[in-house]
Amino acid sequence: MGVRVGVLAIQGDVREHKNHLARAGATPVEVRTLNDLRSVQALIIPGGESTTIGMLMAEEGLIDAVQARVNNEQFPVYGTCAGLILLARDVVGSSPARIGVMDITADRNAYGRQLASFETKLRISVFHDEPEFPAVFIRAPRITRYGPGVTPLATYEGHVVMAEQGSLLVSAFHPEMSGDARIHQYFVDKLRKTLKV
């Protein structure tokens, strides 16, 4: 049985994230409640509308619970698009209720509205043999500042769009919308190393 990785099932491409996790050898679990969160060893926060996701997480007590697990256990969390905003310590402009555990500043909707969505190839530094990754940007944020403990992993037009800090991973794009599961595999492999399994 694989490591249990939760996918926050409030909004976004939950099924697609679960499919990629299964391809990476993990056991995907939908997370909606505190009990669901307690049952997993890591969490993915999908894209969607960050204000709505943050509000619903706060109502369920999930924001405080994720903060506590990150701070006390180095709980691995991967935030994609809106998930990046929710993990960011600071947000440009209006600021939704968020987890705020990663030392980055996020600029919401930096790449425009839904109609401005696009796909591009990114060079991701941790992929050495085949660094290019098909990245889908939909109402995407970008990272405008990052602290000394944050490692940029990919940039687009000079701006950081993927980064990690300890057990935390974020991307401004939607890896689950491509057929490429390498980022999910990277996240799962990091989890296995942390757990020594």
Automatic annotation (TrEMBL):
**What Gene3D superfamilies would the database entry show?**
3.40.50.880
**Annotated positions binding L-glutamine:** G48, E49, S50, R108, I138, R139
Q: Does the keyword Hydrolase apply?
A: yes
Its pathway, per UniProt, is: Cofactor biosynthesis; pyridoxal 5'-phosphate biosynthesis
- Give the matching InterPro entries: Class_I_gatase-like, PdxT/SNO, PdxT/SNO_CS
Q: Write the Enzyme Commission number(s) for this entry.
A: 4.3.3.6, 3.5.1.2
Q: Which UniProt keywords apply?
A: Glutamine amidotransferase, Hydrolase, Lyase, Pyridoxal phosphate
Reaction(s) the record says it catalyses? aldehydo-D-ribose 5-phosphate + D-glyceraldehyde 3-phosphate + L-glutamine = pyridoxal 5'-phosphate + L-glutamate + phosphate + 3 H2O + H(+); L-glutamine + H2O = L-glutamate + NH4(+)
Check the record and name the Pfam families matching this protein: SNO
* Protein's name in the database: Pyridoxal 5'-phosphate synthase subunit PdxT
Q: Where are the transmembrane segments?
A: none
* Active site feature: C81 (nucleophile), H174 (charge relay system), E176 (charge relay system)
What is the top-level taxon of the source organism? Bacteria
The UniProt entry's sequence similarity note says: Belongs to the glutaminase PdxT/SNO family.
Q: What's the name of its gene?
A: pdxT
What exactly does this protein do?
Catalyzes the hydrolysis of glutamine to glutamate and ammonia as part of the biosynthesis of pyridoxal 5'-phosphate. The resulting ammonia molecule is channeled to the active site of PdxS.
SUPFAM superfamilies per UniProt: Class I glutamine amidotransferase-like
Q: Name one GO cellular component term.
A: cytosol
Q: How does it assemble?
A: In the presence of PdxS, forms a dodecamer of heterodimers. Only shows activity in the heterodimer.
A Gene Ontology biological process noted in the UniProt record is: pyridoxine metabolic process
Any idea which GO molecular function terms this record carries? glutaminase activity; pyridoxal 5'-phosphate synthase (glutamine hydrolysing) activity
- PROSITE patterns cross-referenced by the UniProt entry: GATASE_TYPE_1, PDXT_SNO_1, PDXT_SNO_2
